[in-house]
Design brief:
Elements (H helix, E strand, L loop, with lengths): L3 H17 L5 H27 L3 E3 L11 H19 L3 H25 L3 E3 L4 H9 L1 H16 L14
Antiparallel strand pairs: 1-2
Helix pairs in contact: 1-3, 2-3, 2-6, 3-4, 4-5
Amino acid sequence: MVSRKHFLFNVLIILIPWLSLLFIGKRNVKRYSLAGMFVIVFEILNHLYGRKRNWWKFYDKPKWFMRDELPFNVGPYMPLTMWILKYSYGNFKKFILLNVLADGIFAFIVMDFLKKMKIVRLHRLNPFQFFIYIHYKAYLIYAVQYLYEKIKNPTGTNNTAQTNYS
């Protein structure tokens, strides 16, 4: 049975990131949503693999993907990806730095907090391995966004910034 704190955590981990997208702007939502959707699908596959390998353990019984891992996939991954892309796309070093910061906070601080809250703990991974597990996806996300921009605008010019003086 799901504990009250686990249920509340799941609601907050989904609601807060998605509500933050109200402030990102419609144009940015459209521009970065493909990379955001990619990260959700890719992360679901990663979580299924990690679950099978027992890389983490959720405290509530019985184990259930929809209650345990899925809120992490549906909640923060897409909105956070879109925010990081908004503030750093076009500057790869800045993108990686922001991802290192976000992934480091999650792997070393948030996971420790979740363990103390008895929601989830790392089992067969140490925090550094978990950091690598969540961080490597940043390179794939940037590649997806880069390819999307390349296909969407093959000439490489930004039509919104051009002014025609003829």
